[in-house]
Design goal:
Distance between the termini: 76 Å
CATH topology: Hypothetical protein af1432
Largest sheet: none
CATH superfamily: Hypothetical protein af1432
Shape: flat
Helix content: 55-70%
CATH architecture: Orthogonal Bundle
């Protein structure tokens, strides 16, 4: 059978040619770029890139994406270059989700856009920082909602990135409590769990907190006896279990084993032990920063004052400012505000 070859012949734009290729080759369950529900604000189409590719590019070039390299994943200020950060976690989620989407003939551009944007709203010091802001802010704080706020409002000096509805929906609903409307978003939702569970085990073993033999056999017998095997088996299970279906899911045995391993990690790594020994200090630091900026909003900067002028509460804007900090910057601001300098240092 003669292979179909696409060449741009000058009839229509390159974007239209790529949209035609999506129609011909993607699954009936895939989200086609030409069928997007649209952006927050209407804008002219690109002549080369489909809409979801533009979303992906805008996230990749954003300031909030670059800041992820200096934000904690699980282990606070780890010593060594090989521990994960929020940025490397995001890239691993993207790689896993693209593998699933490619195998199921879904839209890889949309998948990657959601994956790259799903954790933009994370605070310094990981989930411990998120918990503090959620407690201090009467409106509440969730990193998934903050990620959407970043792409809708905070990026580009208050203009936002003007992403498509499908990308924002996937970012908002990537946590366990949500369910994206697209299969691309659902693939990211599962890939996030696969990624963080396996790389957190890997980092915990690297840090000497656990050994492979410590992990209960009831989980390793199903998922695999090392990180590589577990990743491979989980990805295969998602793909095999989702072929031809209108949802992305794992088989019951694998889901039960993964949830069991996750609970075991919470008991042994996430909520105690040496890896979390400095968390209370980090949380206290964020509390003091929050209190300071609530009393001195003039120190937030013009773009944040503009948000309050537009009607956002002071608490929300202070959360915007603090959650956007990297771990290092939060420590620097804390030292600047609360740690006295020696004579002649200022």
């Amino acid at each position: 059978m003669k292979e179909t070859v696409f060449e741009h012949n000058g009839q229509g734009t390159i974007r239209e040619m790529l949209e035609q290729r999506e129609r011909m080759f993607l699954s009936p369950h895939a989200a086609l770029s030409e069928n997007t529900r649209g952006r927050q604000y209407p804008e002219e189409k690109c002549d080369m890139r489909p809409d979801y590719q533009r979303d992906r590019d805008r996230i990749l070039h954003s300031k909030s994406f670059r800041r992820l390299k200096r934000k904690t994943q699980v282990f606070l200020a780890p010593e060594g270059d090989h521990y994960r950060t929020r940025l490397t976690h995001t890239l691993e989620v993207s790689q896993i989700a693209r593998t699933i989407s490619k195998s199921l003939l879904l839209n890889e551009d949309l998948t990657e856009a959601i994956a790259l944007g799903h954790d933009l709203g994370h605070t310094p010091f990981g989930h411990s920082g998120e918990a503090v802001l959620n407690r201090l802010c009467r409106e509440g704080f969730e990193h998934s909602e903050q990620s959407v706020r970043i792409v809708e409002v905070l990026e580009k000096g208050g203009k936002g990135l003007n992403l498509t509805w499908e990308t924002r929906d996937g970012i908002l609903n990537h946590q366990t409590s949500g369910m994206p409307h697209t299969l691309e978003g659902q693939s990211v939702r599962l890939s996030d769990k696969i990624a963080y569970l396996n790389h957190d085990v890997d980092d915990a073993i690297r840090g000497g907190l656990i050994t492979e033999e410590d992990i209960p056999r009831e989980y390793t017998e199903v998922l695999g006896h090392n990180v590589h095997d577990r990743l491979n088996s989980l990805i295969h299970d998602v793909i095999n279990n989702s072929q031809g279906r209108d949802s992305i899911s794992m088989s019951p045995d694998f889901m039960t084993a993964m949830q069991g391993l996750r609970h075991w990690m919470f008991d042994n790594i996430y909520t105690g032990g040496r890896a979390k020994s400095e968390e209370k200090k980090a949380q206290h630091m964020i509390e003091l920063l929050f209190d300071h900026y609530m009393k001195h909003p003039d120190e937030l900067g013009e773009e944040y004052l503009m948000l309050m002028d537009r009607g956002d509460s002071r608490e929300r804007v202070v959360c915007d400012y603090i959650s956007g900090m990297t771990d290092n910057y939060a420590i620097e601001k804390f030292e600047e505000l609360f740690v006295p300098l020696g004579w002649g240092q200022r």
